[in-house]
């Protein structure tokens, strides 16, 4: 079973910090897992970013995951991909990237989670928990009840898939979210827009680790 970090940080297109700067700050804060999420650049620009971020991650021993862009596999030091398309064929993706690459997927229903597990995804980002400006969508917020129900159903079906809560999560949500049985949490905006990036990251990391029940 692959290593899946319980607290995952996601970079984002924001005006005041480049993806590279976000990754550097996250690593300085102690990040174990960075998901590079950039949907606005050309392949050449993406690879320039990814190669620079990969060097930082290598220096800090941090896992680098890239959102989508599976066609870049093998062109940079990427440990895995997170696929946001909820209709994506993970059996085909696994054949494409091989067994060593980590593959995660986005889900917003129990059915999505079950399919990801059956098709061999290594983990799932399940959300949104609440309203989020990082990834605007029309999906209903799951709230604590949605996570509790999903964890219960997966347990009943003996499905062992690491599921991380994502979408609009604030520091004061962490303890209750982790108590639902979530494997972990993924965060972007609450750290990127904090007054002190490093302090915000470390507060989340500590809270997730202390609140974990599995």
Automatic annotation (TrEMBL):
Residues 16-191 form the Thiamine phosphate synthase/TenI domain. InterPro entries: Aldolase_TIM, ThiamineP_synth_sf, ThiamineP_synth_TenI. It holds the Pfam family TMP-TENI. Pathway: Cofactor biosynthesis; thiamine diphosphate biosynthesis. This is Thiamine phosphate synthase. It comes from the Bacteria. GO terms for biological process: thiamine biosynthetic process. The lineage of its organism: Bacteria, Pseudomonadati, Bacteroidota, Sphingobacteriia, Sphingobacteriales. Gene3D superfamilies: Aldolase class I. The keyword Endoplasmic reticulum does not apply. GO terms for molecular function: thiamine-phosphate diphosphorylase activity. Signal peptide: none annotated.
